[in-house]
Amino acid sequence: MSDMSAKNKLKIYPKSVICDDESVLIGDVTISSGCLIHPHATIHAKSGPIIVGENCLIEEYVTIVHDTGTVDLDNSGPTLVIGSNNVFEVGCTVEAAAIGERNVFECKSYVSNLVTVSNNCVIGAGCQLVDEHHLPENTVIYGKRSEQRETIEKQKSLSMQLDHLRKLLPNYHHIKKPTFDPKKPREIA
Amino acid sequence: MDVQDTFYNKDEYVETASGNKVSRHTVICGSQNIVLNGKVIVQTGAIIRGDLANVKTGRYCVIGKKAVVRPPLKQFSSGVAFFPLYIGDHVFIGQDAVVQAASVGSYVYIGKDVVIGRRSVLKDCCIIEDGAIVPPDTTVASFMRFTSAGTIEGGQGNPDYVPPGMQEQMIDYTKSYYEHFVPIV
């Protein structure tokens, strides 16, 4: 895919903060408002479009790939919708087939494309989910052997962290400009 | 300890007046908040997040390839804050490590693929094994070894979980690593 067509397919809603240094967004990617992307993150819409929900936090060296095994050449691939309020911590690789809301993918976790993640799940640091799996709500994956249990604790609210970073990051980074305004009928090229 | 020569491309690395060797292919954010105290090597792909809070390292540190050094975050009821991150002298940080510690002492060895959780404290002369995950708010005391299985080994009556003369060995190792970090001629 050429650079130009990839750029045109990238939709960034207003009020999102995306650090421009070395972050790679390939293919048909939509970043909803309120998202925050640190430098050096990779989002690759390989088999179809990716829509990142509102208020997601994506840290350094995160790789999010939408990969069903086929390469989307004629824009007919299924859409991967990532829910709102998810956290992707440093170095995690997420290829999950579906991602709900309020999930946390901790540092260096790996989720393969056979896994579907519902809501309020936590994938612990360094945990690997390779086999076919459906994570019910409130699941926690933890430990060396990636064991699974349910949590009764609620996730801490992300909003304060996002607010803080939203104020901080534009002082130090080039921020990608929004390319899409829902109030206007047509995209701003 | 014998350290083999590590070669680097002369065009890629910048050497500062105090002897720091920093790759051009790194993400150094908020450089005004970062202090590298001299003879520090920052290798390709490393990220140092000085924009979040101050980062200070001592002399003769090695920050490996694709390592991420970022100040730790704490959530209070009234808001969030990033704490400054202090790293001592003669610290080795392996490749792909993620360091979100509150402080790292001197003569610390951090292996590759390690995750140091938020606000952990690593005291002097400790070892973090390759692939270990240090949970948030952990303290690893001096001369302890944090294993990849997630246990802390060592302590009274358990000598030699770190090599004898850990301090001298780390001084030797980081100094010779610096001296053997040479440009391709």
UniProtKB/TrEMBL annotation, chain A:
Major place of residence: cytoplasm
GO MF assignments: dynein complex binding
Among the GO biological process terms of this entry, one is: mitotic spindle organization
Keywords of this entry: Cytoplasm, Cytoskeleton
Q: Where in the cell is it found?
A: Cytoplasm, Cytoskeleton
Task: Read off the CDD domains from this record.
Answer: LbH_Dynactin_6
Task: Identify one Gene Ontology CC term for this UniProt entry.
Answer: dynactin complex
Spans traversing the lipid bilayer? none
Cited function: Part of the dynactin complex that activates the molecular motor dynein for ultra-processive transport along microtubules.
Protein family: Belongs to the dynactin subunits 5/6 family. Dynactin subunit 6 subfamily.
- Please give the name of this protein: Dynactin subunit 6
Q: Which organism is it from?
A: Pseudolycoriella hygida
Q: What is the lineage of its organism?
A: Eukaryota, Metazoa, Ecdysozoa, Arthropoda, Hexapoda
This chain is encoded by the gene named: DCTN6
Automatic annotation (TrEMBL), chain B:
Q: Which InterPro entries match?
A: DCTN5 (IPR047125), Trimer_LpxA-like_sf (IPR011004)
| Gene3D superfamilies from the UniProt entry | Hexapeptide repeat proteins
Q: Which Pfam families match?
A: DCTN5
CDD domains in UniProt? LbH_Dynactin_5
The UniProt entry, under SUPFAM superfamilies, shows: Trimeric LpxA-like enzymes
Q: Which UniProt keywords apply?
A: Cytoplasm, Cytoskeleton
Name of the molecule in the record: Dynactin subunit 5
What gene name does this entry carry? DCTN5
